[in-house]
Amino acid sequence: MKLRDSPIYHERQSFWLCAKHSLNNVLQQEACTQADLERIAKLLHDMHPEETGWLKFNAHKNFLGFGDYDVNVMTAALNENECDLKWHDNRTNIEEADLSSSIGLIVHIQPEWFFRRGHWFAIKYLDQVVTAPVVPKTFVGQPRAARSEAEREERDYEAKTFEPGFWNLDSKSPHPEYIGDRDCLNIFLHDLAKKNRVHVLHVVPLKTMSVSSSST
Hints:
alpha+beta
């Protein structure tokens, strides 16, 4: 089974567009383009130009146009797709989070190393049985096994059937990675937090946010 035959939508990393990839991966379609995010970033900048400082750069994106969009741009993009972002309170354990209304998670990691950039990636729960290609660990990034992305795309991999569960759709990974059930997700996020500063955001339908706001 080839990677392109996988039923899971998975964008790969390009420039500093991890925000775009995370949005599309969690929505499982190309819902947002770079042009969309550039438009939103400009709109946010024009609404509050006083927040840009004396250099007048757009604080919501990379000034060279390579991406690096902030959470405000991502939230506005999700709003255009009838969704919203809800921050998980880091003062509580992830095990306590109610994921029943979430259509997925967007995670931001900031490595402890000072010069390493932060990174957004998506986690998606698929509630059906999925048959997807399995890429052996020895193949990932090995020049002799796959010298280019094109060779990885053309390689035939073993197909495996996975039970409903959470998937790591990190754009820096060459393929979707199966996490497993809720307990496995908790372990995955705890392990991630051992080496990074981690923020978990729930992607929820807009109507869910409006209901929860009116009930408080």
